[in-house]
# Entry
Amino acid sequence: MHPEKIIIFLPEEAALPEGFQNMVDSLNVFTDAEMVRSFSYFGKQSPPLTNGSRPIVVAIAPTRADLERLVESRHLLEDVRLVLLLADTEEETVSRGHLMRPRFIGYLSNGFGEITEVVQKMAGWSKK
# Structure
């Protein structure tokens, strides 16, 4: 099986959330996950296709301002399989998050275990 391209996006001014490194480490067991901290990354290049498949992007929006910046740049993420982590479960936040057309929405308050499982399923990795 060929490895999937995984990009983990966390805005550069954001602190690393608790449990974040564990998520990165668990994804790196299967592939080299690339950490991106700049919104400009997506404007400079399209995430590369890997073996004909679209990359998986885990985008973390720890604040509503970060979410708004993602929404403004959503056209740059049209060709990826997006997993979105939001700061809260408030209706307005979730509604704005859906504008990104993610495959999955999670919440920082729930930690990263669920996100790791979702990404592993999307990538076709199974626990054996």
Summary: The longest strand covers residues 56-61. Residues 14 and 62 are 7 Å apart (CA to CA). The longest helix spans residues 113-122. The beta strands are 6-9, 33-36, 56-61, 81-86, 104-107.
